[in-house]
Design brief:
The chain has about 200 residues and is α+β, with helices and mostly antiparallel strands. It has 1 helix and 10 strands; from the N terminus they run αββββββββββ.
């Protein structure tokens, strides 16, 4: 009886040893596939201040905010969609105001050390800028609204507060637009901002 019980236990152990690797091998591709399609997604909401220039050597501040949606798809590499809105009133006491909305898209790279709550990112975005409720001098006329290309390059620092929420402690971007301005037709602006990031999977 004891021999039969020992033989049964030995047979069960051998069968289990053979079955476990087979099950692991079958589940590994499924797990790997799940990891490949689980793209982390983050949404950032920030307050922004922009040092803009209307013409050469004449700068002014604009205030507003932005929303960024970023998908991280491979080892810190991701893509970003950025929408920002800015406003300035009574520029240089001229009574002229300006509203501006930019919509840009492009790649981002995020770097962080293992087990660190702090991450650093850099990005380069391209899109359009819409200026309105302002004054845009053009040959023979002046428009109150216009569109132009927008190029945005910069980066920032984020600190994780929880697995789902991070503080965007600092961000800085150079923004280049080409609104009509009666001189260079080029504006180089500095975006500064801070806010919160919400992470999803």
């Amino acid at each position: 009886m004891r021999r039969q019980l020992s033989s049964a236990l030995l047979a069960a152990a051998i069968a289990g040893a053979v079955a476990v690797p087979r099950l692991a091998a079958q589940s590994a591709p499924v797990q790997a596939a799940a990891e490949r399609v689980a793209f982390p997604l983050s949404v950032a909401v920030t307050y922004d201040a922009t040092l803009a220039n209307s013409i050469t050597s004449q700068s002014f501040w604009m205030n507003g905010g932005r929303v960024q949606v970023c998908g991280d798809f491979y080892r810190g590499l991701g893509v970003v969609a950025d929408i920002a809105g800015m406003n300035a009133s009574n520029i240089h006491s001229t009574g002229i105001s300006l509203d501006m909305v930019t919509a840009t898209f492009g790649p981002r790279y995020t770097w962080s050390r293992a087990h660190s709550r702090t991450s650093i990112y850099g990005q380069g975005l391209l899109g359009v800028a819409n200026g309105f409720n302002g004054l845009f001098p053009e040959p023979g006329a002046a428009a109150s609204a216009t569109y132009t290309m927008a190029l945005q390059v910069g980066g920032g620092v984020e600190v994780a507060l929880t697995p789902r929420i991070a503080l965007r402690a600092f961000q800085a971007d150079w923004l280049r637009t080409q609104f009509p301005n009666s001189t260079t037709l080029v504006q180089n602006s500095l975006h500064l901002g801070a806010g919160f990031v919400f992470r999803f999977r």
